Amino acid sequence: MHTNSPTPSRPDPAPAPSAQNLPGEHPDPDRRALVLGGGGSTGNAWLIGVLAGLAEAGTEVTGADLTIGTSAGATAAAQCAGATPADLYPGTLQVPAAPPAAAPPASAPAPGGAPSALDRILAVVEASTDLPDMRRRMSAAAMGHDAERGAEHSARWRSIVARRLPCTRWPQRRIVLTAIDARTGEEALLDRDSGLDLVDAVAASCSSGPAYQVGEKRFIDGGFRCGAENADLAAGHGRVLVLAPLGGRSLHARAWGTHLEDQVAQLRAQGSAVRVVIPRPEAQHLFGAAAMTAALRPDAAREGHRQGTLLAEEIAAFWG
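and the corresponding structure tokens:
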């Protein structure tokens, strides 16, 4: 098992990918992409805090040509499509009255000595030969839940997600939310033309436990596609800003190429300018294993807001 070591601002660049991995067209220097990574409840609060801090200091980035959201980042992307970060920020300073997810935290111990959700994920990753194999195994596990429990879980999860969104309609600007089609193990890139409404798309991207059901379709968390950020989807954009609550860490084998620093290196090799923001080392205790601790959301939001304010001038110069 491999993990990335967090750094104060951005992962160290990895070796450039081979030429056959590069697209034929040079990125458009005038196009900007905002990547909002996964990271649970505290990650979502941190993302909103960073965006609010940037905006308060005069640097607005939520109007990007493309916003890519994964899991908690999908929630943040949809929230910012219906309200400004300044409007959303006060809500992150309140501890939710109910648990932030329909399933227990991935790091929570299971009763009776049974493996936790995180243990089960680690076991699947260890048993997988490559990324497609891991996606298929994760999908099969999610689909293995009985249909009745899956339907009940999906209805409950959809109602939770809907309450979090200030607007339930897709915006006109382009937002892509990542998920995995649990029937095939293939990626599912959800936007306003995908046939899902915004609530279902967010719920799909954040789905844990039983596969999320929309009619005959089934989905699992977008973090299983290519890590918690899926920054590779920003290819073709001249400037890419990545907000990564988990700091680029990955449970995947390095050879799979899903670590954030590998994706950043590939984007840069293609000609994109990339800036990565991660939580500061002194705030790492708010994320990772603590990501689903609702009581830590206010601290994570304040930390994000502080970073956004401090980085606003630098990000403004980068964003153009």
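(Above: one complete record from the training split.) The chain has ten helices and eight strands.
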